[in-house]
Amino acid sequence: MTLTLPPYQSKLQGWPGLIEAYKSYLPVTEKTPVVTLQEGNTPLIPVPAIAHQVGRQVEVFVKYDGLNPTGSFKDRGMTLAISKAKEAGAKAVICASTGNTSASAAAYARRGGMRAFVLIPDGNIALGKLAQALLYGAQVLAIKGNFDQALEIVREVANKYPVTLVNSVNPYRLEGQKTGAFEIVDTLGEAPDWLCIPVGNAGNITAYWMGFCQYHKIGKCDRLPKMMGFQAAGAAPIVQGNPIAQPETVASAIRIGNPASWEKAIAAQQASQGSFTAVTDEEILEAYRLLASNEGIFCEPASAASVAGLLKVKDQVPTGSKIVCVLTGHGLKDPDVAIKHSNNQFKQGLEPSIEAVAEVMGF
Ligand code: AN7
Predict the structure, then answer these.
(1) Which contiguous run of DSSP H or E holds residue 156?
(2) Separation CA 188–CA 185 (nearest Å)
(3) Would you tell me how many other CB atoms lie within 10 Å of the CB of residue 25?
(4) Digit-coded pLDDT (tens) for 30-58
(5) How does pLDDT run across 174-197, given as a tens digit for each residue?
(6) Which atom of ligand 1 is least distant from the CA of 95?
(7) Which of 281, 287, 288, 289 is nearest to 233 (CA)?
(8) Nearest CA to ligand 1 atom 10
(9) In the chain, what is the straight-line distance between the N-terminal and C-terminal CA atoms, in Å?
(10) Whether residue 201 has its Cβ less than 6 Å from ligand 1
């Protein structure tokens, strides 16, 4: 069945999704069946309260990738990985996930008419992400182990059986994710001085670096940013220089002890003269609350690691520089952490009367 849209409607569709928008920079052809939810084109939002805390006349922006169709940056890589899997005739895909990859894989696989199998660490994924994977119709398998163990298993399964691996070891994932860097340069008209980014499996920092380098090579920007990667202190293998057998952090998305893209991330950090730094859970939660209550931006805890990290190393920021912090996932992904770690309270059990409400309001 072909669907023809009336002209006014196709105009209203606007942004076509990142594969269509950036196809000349991506490994697609006319024959690639594009599976899209019109992901990408996320806003780059100034955050003046954070800039004020850094001082030094800096400009700080957040790349709010939580506004993608499934609520995280994973959609950038998944639209391409699933389109290429479909092109190759795949009937099923598999991934290990701390939550966001599973939600994204499930949505795009189902949209592309494929089965999705997702392995998650039992008891350690945020509620919103589990809800998504279930409702999108994935087969959700919770293992009594952590993400690193789940990733080992799915790599083997994809080797042995006819199912396509869509973790970021699939090169199409990083190819899609590099478009985040394109969008930042397209919006700013140049590369930022610093890119601050949370690091878990280390795919996204690798992808952003690929994107900046590709744009630099073709003259879309005349400089490259320092890549500033931030890991949670209890899950900071790259900072510590060795794998962590039992990673722990409130930021469950980045509870990863043995990142798949470790070497590539180190290469990006070194080539850009950037750094890797650990931020504590308390620093992450402080930035998480600050973003929401001062800037009106609700991201998930792992995403706040980028802002926590910037505030931690603010003394190294050059005066007048432009800084972008990537907010990788939406705050609604993890309502439990929000309610548990908000400093705010709400009044319960009030009488349903004007007087009772007015009294509590202080009138
Ligand atoms: C919100 O979903 O690994 O360094 O399985 O969900 O590219 O791994 C998620 C990672 C940052 C880290 N912020 O990115 C998964 C998964 C959020 C995330 C990261 C993740 P990478």
Answers:
(1) helix 147-160
(2) 5
(3) 17
(4) 999 999 999 999 999 999 999 999 999 99
(5) 999 999 999 999 999 999 999 999
(6) 5
(7) 281
(8) 253
(9) 62
(10) yes
